[in-house]
Amino acid sequence: MAAFLPRADSRYHVRSISLPTRSHPSTVKVEEQLNKLKACEASSSSQAEKICRGLFGLVELYRCVEELLNLPLTQQALAQYQHEKWVNELLDGSVKYLDICSKASDTVLLMKESVRELQSALRRRKGGEFSIEGNVAGYTCCRKKMKKEVAKSLSSLKQMENKSGTSPILDLDQHLSAVVRVLREASLITTSIFQQLLLFLSAPVLKPKPTKWSLVSRLAHKGVIVCEAQGKKINELESVDIAVSNLLVQNPSKDPEAEKIQSAHKRLEALDMSIEGLENGLGCLFRRLIQTRVSLLNILSH
Q1: Quick check: 266 pLDDT over 50?
Q2: What Pfam family is a match, any one (predicted)?
Q3: What's the CA gap between 113 and 229, in Å, rounded?
């Protein structure tokens, strides 16, 4: 759907749209799903929960888009314009969204494996088997690798925006004009949710040096207090970073070992659940995006 990304809006703000009162019910369904997604973005849920809802919302949105594309009225209109630049950009965009979705799925899977390895190491440490430093280093290395991969996808999203612009679309009938309008909005909201997901996965990595664990712990704690005072929420990844750094602080007078392990376990479990939701949402969305692309190819091949 990259063909419909407006060049000027760097924040991917989704505008409200007003369709003709006689729009086809399938077009109205797409608009209703868009409004639900905009409401989800404005909710006060945790960051991961909001993104997860957004992904499943996109699944439903593209189900409605596919229903709209499968209308004989839509198919006839699109087939008539199949050689236009904006139609080719539409096809190109569908491929790029699939690529970003696939890469995000790989990143989330890598994160899940790293989190579960760290959970397993904490259980062994609780039994007094060995120190945790190596596992924390492995977790941090995973986070750094994620950031590099995510940066590429974020760059790809930006390139889609810059290259697509707004191709001239003239002399369309009322139905096709309505279809184009909702597809533009679908592109905006898809890009916005993908961006939120990628930024979540590339949250700054807390990477202290071994000789400065106490300082890092104090700074991390101070950062939490500042965020709370300003009404900001730290996400699940940042919360785990703080708990993991506390595990390595040698301070017998505060935070006994068992309490620190319990705190890290709790935050890792919360992150694990969030990752599971993101993984399922991305899987469902990937399959739906494939179906939408197949529908487009079928329309334009006739």
Answers
A1: yes
A2: BPS1
A3: 34
In the structure encoding, which two tokens stand for residue 23, read together? 């729009």
Q: What is the mean pLDDT of residues 74-83?
A: 85
Helix (H, G, I), strand (E, B) or coil at 208: coil
Distance CA 113, CA 101 (A): 19
Taking the CA atoms of 276, 269, 53 and 101 in sequence, report the sign of the dihedral they define.
Answer: negative
CB count, 10 Å around CB of 46? 16
Instruction: List alpha helices for the chain, DSSP H.
Output: 25-41, 47-69, 72-80, 85-126, 133-164, 174-201, 213-229, 236-247, 257-300
Find the domain containing 79 and state its range: 2-300
**Alpha carbon separation from 268 to 103, 111, 178, 224, 275 (Å, rounded):** 23, 11, 46, 17, 10
Q: Is 295 exposed, middle or buried (0-12, 13-18, 19+ CB in 10 A)?
A: buried
Residue 43 DSSP label: S
Which token pair is 43?
Answer: 């909710």
Confidence (pTM): 0.81
Task: Render pLDDT for 238-247 as a digit per residue (tens, 0 to 9).
Answer: 888 888 877 7
Q: How many separate domains does the chain show? A: 1
